[in-house]
Amino acid sequence: MFTNSQRQEERTGKYGTPRVEYLQQLVTQFQNASSEETKEKIVANFANFAYDPYNFTFLRQLNVIELFLDCLTEPNEKLVEFGIGGICNVCADPSNAALVTQNDGIPLIVQCLSSPVRSTFIECFDLHMVKFAHYIPREHFKLAVVN
């Protein structure tokens, strides 16, 4: 369910942690994590937050979109899966999509088209067909799917 400032304030209460602070804590936990499982859980959490437009500004401010892109270069398929899911979610906003392209995210997305993980492929396919069709030449898409 999408939220807004008033609903968020009601849910947080006067003693709760504001959303941006909570997300900053997650960023710090990710940076300090030594366990792959912990990193997976945090990136999955970020991908869920990336679904709600209320969080878009916070995610940009905290460089979480860049973190999603970094996950696409990891050998850990779960990090790739959650990273591409987060990118797919945040790219509903044109500012976030522009940030992905400015940070050379298109080649990373194309590379993920050959992932053996079904959900990763589906998210990449969605990004290609819906959000970045004008950035990704058809021949790259065909080659990645064949591989």
From TrEMBL:
<protein>
    <recommendedName>
        <fullName>Armadillo repeat-containing protein</fullName>
    </recommendedName>
</protein>
<dbReference type="InterPro" id="IPR042462">
    <property type="entry name" value="ARMC7"/>
</dbReference>
<dbReference type="InterPro" id="IPR016024">
    <property type="entry name" value="ARM-type_fold"/>
</dbReference>
<dbReference type="InterPro" id="IPR011989">
    <property type="entry name" value="ARM-like"/>
</dbReference>
